[in-house]
Amino acid sequence: MTTMGKCQAGAILAGCLTILTSAALAEDELILARARQEMVERQLKGRDITDARVLAAMGNVPRHRFVRPSMVGDAYADRPLPIDEGQTISQPYIVALMTQLLELKGSERVLEVGTGSGYQAAVLAELVKQVYTIEILPGLARTAAVRLVELGFTNVHVRAGDGYRGWPDEAPFDAIVVTAGATHVPAPLVDQLKEGGRLVIPVDAAGGYQELLQCRKERGQLSSMAIAPVRFVPLVEPKR
Ligand code: SAH
Description:
By secondary structure, the chain is of the alpha/beta class. The protein has helices at 6-45, 52-60, 92-101, 119-125, 138-150, 187-191, and strands at 81-82, 88-89, 109-113, 130-135, 156-160, 173-178, 193-204, 210-218, 221-230. It has a seven-stranded mixed β-sheet with strand order 5-4-3-6-7-8-9. The protein has a two-stranded antiparallel ribbon with strand order 1-2.
């Protein structure tokens, strides 16, 4: 019989622990993937999300990587969740609805105002060529940019700054989505939208909520359609 040296036993134990930990992690990932598929079925297909590409993107993006570690278990719940600096990541259904309203085909360049966690930007990145996203809080912009790179998104460009003014250097855009509640449609965003382009934005309505608008630029004019009442954190606007 051979006696095992202390070092050897320690190395075997450490090896076993690594295998156990990675098995537990793989199991967690499986549970989360199932929760994500259930979210797509019940919360999205079960409502009015019919765009197959949007459903596929929502099924692909690991939403649990965009929430706080303590909230991973709630990542696929039918509600918004708090993120850092008092902001929120929207309910999955609202992300899917806003994305569907942008009517994306695949070759577009899209601007998002309000990066937050970066989740909406990641969903867009699955669907179009290039995504430009602006976040007014530099800390959130930094975290989102790092997270998106870690997850392998190479077509998202994150900038810290005031998205009310859009991103003139990269304009015009095929579609623009604002993920914070505005008092009105910002004129710079209309200017930076291509002819025929779509702008989706929550705008203040009576009663403390906002109306989600789907706007379209036709012959230089913006027409808009009210889609649903929603509640977003406020868009920071220049003082008038
Ligand atoms: N789309 C995000 C959620 C956005 S919450 C996600 O998927 O996680 C709204 C975000 O808009 C907040 O992070 C807030 O800081 C940001 N915001 C508010 N006013 C802004 C402005 N003027 N320009 C850019 N970002 C703004």
